[in-house]
Design a protein that fits this description.
With 313 residues, the protein is α+β, with helices and mostly antiparallel strands. It has 11 helices and 7 strands.
């Protein structure tokens, strides 16, 4: 079984290998084209300036060949890929040159020009070999970098994960964080209705694992009197003692009254019965004395109830 990294590397090697082969061909053609243009521009002029009118004299021919080959040895081949190129004269006009070695040229450039009524021609053989070490090193480096990038790029989301990502983004999670969350298989076990709670936990700075736990928590309201803490769907909220007692009392009323939550009494008639129940709860749970005194002397009034529900010690 091929690992992810191995598969990515293999694909990249194939891609870079193919592209390198194409690049080699293009670079070789570019180098030859550049040399051909330079030779056709400079060689005829230099031969003419030297006053050479005939290639038939063996001494002149030898001197000319030696001079051209020396100049060719200094040529820098313009190419995007390093090549080791060697060039030499193969023929002057129609006469082949006696060569010292039997190197097979991979290209022959023909430099042809008019010298009065005569047509002059010099054939240049070019043998270019790519700098294999540099090319292979570069290819391996590119393969490694592309493999690294491909491995760490986020995978496209599909199906259920994509829908969940959309739900989290709709609940306020930014796209980048959403991509990371939805790529985690642990999110798939969070119920759909728990996703808004995951979003809320993320907004509060929870880690991914803790946010998933909140999303999977029961949809219940829990009161911890010892720590004045309310937990809603797995999200704990620490509160001052007096507000905690008011919320606890409201929740108790909700359990006792099936038709709905407790409603505030009329502003003209304080509620003495519920005031006694609230006072008993506050004394039992260590509520603020001022709040207890207000309830004892004035009863449970809408205005005072709202104020004390928001009071802090």
């Amino acid at each position: 079984m091929i690992s992810k990294v191995g598969a990515f590397t293999l694909i990249v090697l194939l891609l870079t290998g193919g592209s390198s082969y194409i690049a080699l061909g293009l670079a070789h053609r570019s180098a030859l084209s550049s040399l051909d243009a330079e030779l056709n521009q400079q060689l005829p002029a230099r031969i003419s300036q030297a006053g050479i009118n005939s290639f038939s004299d063996p001494q002149v021919e030898a001197m000319l060949i030696s001079s051209i080959n020396a100049d060719l040895a200094d040529v820098v081949y313009q190419s995007s890929i390093a090549y080791d190129c060697h060039s030499r004269v193969l023929a002057l006009d129609e006469s082949a040159v006696e060569l010292a070695s039997a190197t097979v040229e991979d290209a022959i450039l023909n430099v042809q020009w008019q010298d009065g009524e005569l047509t002059r021609r010099v054939d240049i053989g070019v043998d270019c070999q790519p700098d294999t070490e540099s090319i292979v090193s570069g290819q391996l480096l590119v393969s490694f970098l592309l493999s690294f990038v491909l491995f760490f790029l986020p995978r496209p989301l599909r199906g259920n994960a994509q829908r969940r990502c959309g739900a989290l983004m709709g609940a306020g999670v930014d796209a980048a964080r959403c991509q990371a969350l939805c790529s985690d298989p642990a999110l798939l076990v969070v119920p759909e209705e728990g996703l808004p709670w995951v979003s809320r936990a993320i907004a509060l700075g929870y880690t991914d694992a803790a946010a998933f736990a909140v999303g999977k928590a029961e949809d219940v309201l829990q009161f911890d009197a010892a720590h004045s803490r309310v937990t809603i769907h797995g999200l704990p909220i620490d509160m001052p003692a007096t507000p905690f007692i008011y919320y606890f009392w409201y929740a108790s009323c909700r359990l006792q009254q099936a038709e709905g939550w407790f409603t505030n009494p009329s502003i003209r008639k304080p509620d003495t019965e519920n005031a006694r129940q609230l006072i008993a709860t506050m004394r039992k749970m260590g509520g603020h004395q001022k709040a207890i005194n207000d309830l004892s002397t004035k009863g449970l009034r809408a205005k005072i109830l709202d104020q004390n529900r928001r009071s802090e010690e």
